[in-house]
Amino acid sequence: MTLSHDISAIRKNYSKQDLTENSVLADPVHQFKVWLQEAINAEAEEATAFVLSTVNESGQPSARVVLLKDVDGEGFTFFTNYDSRKGKELEVNPFAAATFFWASLERQVRIEGQVELIPAQNSDDYFHSRPKGSQIGAWASPQSQEIESRHVLEESDKYYSAKFSDAEIIPRPAHWGGYKLIPHRIEFWQGRPNRLHDRIMYERLNGNWQLKRLAP
Predict the structure, then answer these.
(1) Residue 130 included in any domain
(2) Residue 138: inside a domain, yes or no?
(3) Residues near 113 by Cβ (< 8 Å), separated by ≥ 6?
(4) Model pTM score
(5) What does the pLDDT look like over 190-205, one tens digit per residue?
(6) In terms of DSSP H, where are the helices of the chain?
(7) Is 110 among the catalytic positions?
């Protein structure tokens, strides 16, 4: 198949805002919250979605889009199946990178750090806040595992729907829960004209955040 456009010629000249050392907060997590709130206020599409990148025991990377479910002074929380590909990779290499991109604001945030399981009670609390269908889906889907057809998935969903039809509380599966990405590096990127973008990077050294400007 031949593309209808020359993708090498597709480009956009960013020009909406600037980003300076004096305009950002001293704590990058607080700065992230400011940008996230601005993305939500601007109704950026899927403002809490980010690309999570992990690496397996052989050093091969993989990436996928997941949803941010909490952010606090310690880090960034997301939920998944522990037996999924990302879960298995985090088990052997507990480091990851997260990339947020808010195209309408011409902004990107890159986060790197160590990943830890959150407490079981926190996973329980979030699991029980989800719609019942999503709770059943966590039981029904052997995430990242090969299945013969969609019929297998649909039958599994029917089985667990029947199993938990009378349950007041659906138990959280042991294979499903939350992770927290604890950052040691956070970079804020603001698109600027002529590809001279602003990049402000925070790096945690000896327990303190140090701010640097990077060339685009």
Answers:
(1) no
(2) no
(3) 75, 95, 96, 181, 182, 183, 184, 185
(4) 0.92
(5) 999 999 999 999 999 9
(6) 28-41, 85-92, 120-129, 132-140, 150-163
(7) no
Collapsed DSSP state (helix, strand, coil) of residue 181 = strand
Per the domain annotation, does 141 fall within a domain?
Answer: no
SS3 153: helix
Q: What percent of the chain has pLDDT over 70?
A: 94
Residue 8 has pLDDT above 60, yes or no: no
Q: Which two tokens stand for residue 117?
A: 């399981």
- Within 8 A by CB and 6+ apart from 120, the residues are 177
Q: What type of residue is 77? A: T
- Domains held by the chain: number: 1
In a domain, 1, yes or no: no
| Domain range for 83 | 14-123+171-214
What is the sign of the dihedral through the CA atoms of 84, 87, 91 and 95?
A: positive
Catalytic residue among 11, 172, 195, 213: 195
Q: How confident is the model at residue 1 (pLDDT cuts 50, 70, 90)?
A: confident
CA atoms of 192 and 194, how far apart (whole Å)? 7
pLDDT per residue over 121-162, tens digit each?
A: 999 999 999 999 999 999 999 999 899 999 999 999 999 999
